[in-house]
Amino acid sequence: MGDLSPGFRGKARDLMARLPPGQYPTESFPVLSAGPTPHIPTDRWSFTVTAETGESRTWTWEEMMALPQEEPTVDIHCVTRWSKFDTRWRGVPLDAFLDGVGTAADFVVAESFDGYTTNLPLEDVTDGKAWLAHSFDGYALSPDHGGPARLVIPHLYFWKSAKWVKGLVLTRENEPGFWESAGYHDYGDPWREQRHRGD
Amino acid sequence: MHGWRRARLAERTKQTATGRTLRFEVPRWPGHLPGQHVDVRLTADDGYRAVRSYSLAAPADADVIELGVQAAFGGEVSPYLADDLPVGAEVEVEGPLGGWFVWTPGDPGPLLLIAGGSGIVPLMAMLRARLASESDDPCALLYSVRDPDEVWYAAELDAVGSAGSAGSVGGTVDVRRLYTRTAPDGSARPPGRMTERDLPVLPSPAQARCYVCGPTGFVEHAGALLLAAGHAPDRIRTERFG
Asked: Domains of chain A by range and CATH?
C-alpha cells in the first residue's frame, strides 16, 4: 500500500467501526433516483399487499395513518457509498400489513408509483426490520426523498428501501427488481459489501 | 468483472476554480459506455482507505480514462484528487460501474442532454461519443452554469456549437449555455433559471432520450420541465449529486 496515493491521510478513521466497508459518512441527505420524481397526492395514494394467490388488501392514506406508528432512528447506507447516521423516521412497521396475510411465499417485490421495483426475502421485511415511512426528521417526507411514503429497510443498501412505494407483491420465486436486473447485487448487505452482482 | 486496478495519473487539467479533469492510465482497461462511472480508492500510509465514485468524462480510449472531479470544500477525497495527487502517482480504480445512466451511439432517436454545473461530466462522455458517431439524429446539450467561470470544457464546447437562442434542432449538435447569475456581455438570453423556453423544440419529444445530471434541485426542476413539455417519463434518465 505504501506506494499508492502518496500524501493521502483521510479523515473518517474514528467512524470506521460504525461504517460498513467502503462507506463514508455524510451530513447531507443525497438523492439517488433513476428518473423524474413522481408527485402523488395523499388522496390518490394507496398501499396494497398482494399474496401469491392473488388475494390482496389495500389501505388508504387515512387507514395507514391510523395504524400504530413507530419512530425508528437508524443508520442508512447507500450503495453510492454514503452512510448517514441516526436518521429519524416515522411510519408503520411492515408487519402491520403482512401479519394477516395467508402466504407460503418466501420473497416479496416492492412496487412503486413510477414503475420501480426491488426484491427482498420476506424474512427481511418482517419482525420489525422494515417500515413504511411517511415522515423524516419530524416532517412529512418530501417527494425527492420518496414521499408521500417509502420503505425504510436500514440493514440493506438503501436502494432496497423503495421510494414512492405503492405495494408489496408476495412471490414464491425470487424476482429481481430494477437495479437487481441492472447488475446490482440481489441481496445488498452493506456489511458484506454486496454492491454488485458477484460481490 | 470486478476488482481493483492500479491507475497512474497521467495528466490533470484545470476546468474551473474547483473542477479538474484527470486522465489516468489503467493497464488492461476493459472499456466502458458513455455515462458510466468508476470508484476511486485512496490508501493512506497506515492502510486506511477511502472510496468515492467519479464519472467518466470521455468514451473509452484504449488504456486511458478521463474522470471529472469537483473539489468539495473540506472533503476527504476530492480535494486530494483535485490538487494533491502527484502526476505519475497511482491510485486504484474499480469499474466501469453503472448500467442505467448510459447512452451509446447505437441508441436511435433525438438525444437531449441537460447538465447543471459539474453534472456536465458524464454528459460530456455522451456528447463526445455522439460527435464521433455517424448519427444525424438531432442532439442538443443544455448546460446550466452560474457564470462563465463555471463552464467546463469551454473551448471544446465553443468548437461544437454556439450558445444560440431557442429554436428547432436540426441534424447537427446544438450546444446551449444557460447562465443563471451572470451572462457574458452580448448574451441574448438574460441570466436566470432554466425555463420551458430554453428547451429545444424537437419534432416528437416523446421519442427523445433525455439525460439529466446535476445537483438534486436542478434535476428535479429539469425533470418537471421535460414532463411538462411532453417528454416520456420512461425516457428521462437522471443522475443527481449533493
From this structure: 21-27+37-192 (3.90.420.10)
Q: Do B241 and A114 touch (CB under 8 A)?
A: no
Q: A1–B237: do the CB atoms touch at under 8 Å? A: no
Write out the H or E segment, with its range, that includes residue B131.
helix B120-131
Q: Is the pLDDT of residue B1 over 60?
A: no
Q: Does A142 touch chain B (CB under 8 A)?
A: no
Contact B237 A35 (CB under 8 A): yes
Task: Write the ipTM.
Answer: 0.83
Q: Are A157 and A126 a contacting pair, CB within 8 Å?
A: no
HEC letters along A116-178? CEEEEEHHHCCCCCCEEEEEECCEECCHHHCCCCEEECCCCCHHHCCCCEEEEEEECCCCCCH
Q: Per-residue pLDDT averaged across A34-38, rounded? A: 91
Complete domains list, chain B, with CATH: 5-97 (2.40.30.10), 111-241 (3.40.50.80)
User: Is pTM beyond 0.80 here?
Assistant: yes
Which member of B2, B43, B233 has the closest CB to residue A5?
B43
Whether the predicted pLDDT of B149 surpasses 50: yes
